[in-house]
Amino acid sequence: MISVVLVAGASSGVGLETARALARRGHQVYGTSRSADRVDIPGVRPLALEIGDEGSVRACVDHVLARHGRLDALVYSVGFYVAGAVEETSDELALAQLRAYLLGAHHLVRAVLPAMRGQGGGRLVLMSSTAAVAAIPFHAIYSASKAALNHYAEALRYEVAPFGVRVACVEATSVRTGAAAAMRESDPIPGYEPVRTRVIERFRRLQLDGPSPLPVADGIVRAVEARRMRPLYRIGTQARTLPWLRALLPYPVFRRFYARFFHVSPG
């Protein structure tokens, strides 16, 4: 079945590869970025979208509905990440992070739900992270925003299931995306050095040198096309293993294991 799909955040990384893969499979795909000319993918129609502007969100969704009269799937893969110690992170940075991963998704979900309810179905696929399972040191707001997105999706499933609307989160570890270039770093407090810089650089290198985003995009395509979409897709060995380790290991043991990975104190 050919679907009409809106991919938010299609200018790079997972969103770009998802839009490309969906278009290759014959779907009618719209890809967004703050500037429409940043979306240059064969078969994908570019749209400008500022997720923090409800007028922009409404105009984007209305454009798709005016062209097709329906919207079958929303893929939300927007954002940047904030790095730094909690003490360093201003309220403005924290709110910007929550707007990117939680409130931005909320704006788009609210905009597409009337059409999906009216047509008797639809799919909402939200890009989360393993940081929702185990918080990353010096990335507390990023981790909290991903965990919040997971709980948001969980509650939303109950609400929209009677209308045939399905909701999924996709969790993966770091893959090569444009996220490292879009990182926003707080002003450093010397007392947290050198651990602070070491952890932030390690996470940044994971973004720059990690595996291809293609497997994650393939997982999202499976979610969009599945006969019965699952509520959670964990892509990659680490993403599938980490929740089991978190569940099975005693908490102090897990903390020591996780702290060793980032070279920090388990606390």
List keywords for this structure.
SDR_oxidoreductase, 7-stranded parallel beta sheet, globular, Rossmann fold, 8 helices, 267 residues, alpha/beta, 48% helix, single chain
Q: Care to describe what's here?
A:
Keywords: Oxidoreductase. Belongs to the short-chain dehydrogenases/reductases (SDR) family. Pfam families: adh_short. This is NAD(P)-dependent dehydrogenase (Short-subunit alcohol dehydrogenase family). This protein has 267 residues and is α/β, with parallel strands linked by helices. It has one domain: NAD(P)-binding Rossmann-like Domain (Rossmann fold), CATH 3.40.50. The chain is built from 8 helices and 9 strands. Strands 3-2-1-4-6-7-9 form a 7-stranded parallel beta sheet, sandwiched between helices. The protein has a two-stranded parallel ribbon with strand order 5-8.
Short description:
By secondary structure, this protein is an alpha/beta fold.
Assign the structural class, choosing from mainly alpha, mainly beta, alpha/beta, alpha+beta, or little secondary structure. alpha/beta
Radius of gyration: 18 Å
Q: Tell me which CATH architecture applies here.
A: 3-Layer(aba) Sandwich
Number of DSSP-assigned strands:
9
Principal-axis shape: globular
* CATH-assigned homologous superfamily: NAD(P)-binding Rossmann-like Domain
Report the sheet with the most strands, covering strand number, pairing sense and barrel closure. 7 strands, parallel
Number of self-contained structural domains? 1
Q: Please state the oligomeric state of the protein chains shown.
A: single chain
State the strand order across the main sheet: 3-2-1-4-6-7-9
The percent range for strand residues is: 15-25%
CATH class: Alpha Beta
| N-C termini distance | 52 Å
Poorly predicted tracts of residues: none
Instruction: Name the average pLDDT.
Output: 93
Total helical segments: 8
Q: CATH topology, what is it called?
A: Rossmann fold
Keywords: Oxidoreductase
Domain Ketoreductase: 3-173
GO molecular function: oxidoreductase activity
Family: Belongs to the short-chain dehydrogenases/reductases (SDR) family.
